[in-house]
Specification:
The structure holds two protein chains of two kinds. Chain A has a domain at about 35-140: Fumarate reductase/succinate dehydrogenase, transmembrane subunit (3 helical TM bundles of succinate and fumarate reductases, Up-down Bundle). Helices cover about 65% and strands about 0% of the residues of chain A. Chain A has five helices and no strands. Chain B is mainly alpha-helical. Chain B has one domain (about 15-125): Up-down Bundle (3 helical TM bundles of succinate and fumarate reductases). In chain B, helix 1 (about 15-40) packs across helix 3 (about 60-90) and helix 3 (about 60-90) runs antiparallel to helix 4. The chains are: A mainly alpha, B mainly alpha. Chains A and B meet through helix 2, helix 3, helix 4 and helix 5 of A and helix 1, helix 2, helix 3 and helix 4 of B. The structure holds protoporphyrin IX containing FE (2 copies).
Chain lengths: ~160, ~130
């Protein structure tokens, strides 16, 4: 470096002397940071929700053999299980989609391929999350035209 | 950009394998969940439709598949907690390898509690 250049640099005024130091001055946002935090926060909640889900559906009572329409109706007749399943659905789909996004970014190096994979991923996210939400909110444990022996016992009461 | 495929440059021991396993189990659970929400949505079609499809799952092959799915989730969940401890706990990086053994231990204990009961349901007849 020549003497003149060093002097020029030293004479540059500091634009905003009181400003806190920022390592990164670009303004592309903090999306990756938030997504990193979200993966961890959602993970903790999902651990509880999914372990409860698996215990109630696979271990308690008759386990997997007990699952049929009556079983689901018995659970979703209660707002408690509706809320639990709704939160589980959204957190698991967001967590899983975000994780898949990372993996697509890692392995799909061609721009075109990466774009199409992400379009497929986000489409799957929207379709499945909306469908699952509608199913929970529009569920009827006692559909009028169904045979009574398939329904939970409280329907006849 | 490096021309070697991304993701194969990792070299290492437990750290690398637990990362691969975390990734593989995450993908597996994700695809399961897509199918799972679709088949559960059959409760809105009719009780018969839901029972018919769930009925086709009630055989030993699917029963073993469920066991595999649970194993994947139990590993992913415990290992996920380990990743968080590595990130947030001040001694996390020092004990990451020890914690992987704790994860494997908890995995074995959890599966030992789950498998006999599930396999009993699957193979026990009725
Ligand atoms: C083999 C293991 C599993 C079985 C037998 C099973 C069974 C069921 C059943 C019977 C329902 C109906 C409602 C209820 O019972 O709460 C349901 C709903 C649900 N399950 Fe599972 N499940 C399993 C694993 C999982 C896993 C691993 C996840 C998360 C990744 C999950 C996420 C959900 C969600 C989000 C719903 C609500 C679906 C909707 O909104 O339509 N399940 N599951
Ligand atoms: C049971 C509780 C769960 C916990 C504690 C958990 C925890 C985590 C953590 C900490 C990460 C790391 C993110 C990173 O490295 O930045 C992660 C990644 C991931 N998770 Fe989960 N998770 C859970 C459930 C799930 C479920 C239900 C799915 C699928 C629907 C899933 C799919 C993924 C995927 C695809 C990744 C990306 C893997 C990678 O980038 O290598 N996880 N999880």
């Amino acid at each position: 470096m020549t003497t003149t250049q060093t002097q020029a640099a030293a004479q540059l005024p500091i634009e905003n002397p009181g400003e806190a130091y920022k390592r990164r001055k670009t303004t592309r946002g903090n999306f990756e940071l938030y997504s990193w935090v979200f993966m961890r926060a959602s993970g903790v909640v999902l651990l509880v929700l999914i372990f409860v889900h698996l215990f109630v559906n696979l271990v308690a009572g008759e386990g997997i053999t007990a699952i049929d329409f009556g079983f689901v109706a018995g659970k979703w007749a209660s707002p408690f299980w509706q809320v639990i399943d709704l939160v589980m659905l959204w957190l698991a789909m967001l967590h899983g989609t975000n994780g898949m996004r990372t993996i697509v970014n890692d392995y799909a190096e061609r721009d075109g391929l990466r774009m199409w994979l992400k379009i497929a991923l986000y489409t799957a996210f929207v379709v499945v999350t909306v469908l699952g939400t509608l199913v929970i909110f529009t569920f009827d444990p006692c559909p009028a035209d169904a045979p009574a022996n398939l329904l939970p016992s409280f329907c006849t009461a | 950009m490096p021309s070697a495929p991304a993701g194969t440059l990792y070299r290492g021991r437990e750290g690398m394998w637990s990362w691969v396993a975390h990734r593989v189990t995450g993908v597996l659970i994700f695809f399961f969940l897509l199918v799972h929400v679709l088949d559960t949505s059959l409760v809105r079609v009719s009780p018969e439709a839901y029972n018919a499809v769930i009925g086709t799952y009630k055989n030993p092959i699917m029963g073993l598949g469920e066991a595999g799915l649970v194993a994947a989730i139990v590993f992913h969940a415990f290992n996920g907690i380990r990743l968080m401890l590595v990130d947030f706990w001040s001694k996390g990086t020092r004990y990451h390898r020890v914690m992987l053994w704790v994860v494997m231990g908890l995995f074995v204990v959890t599966m030992a509690g789950f498998l006999p009961r599930h396999l009993m349901h699957v193979f026990g007849g009725e």
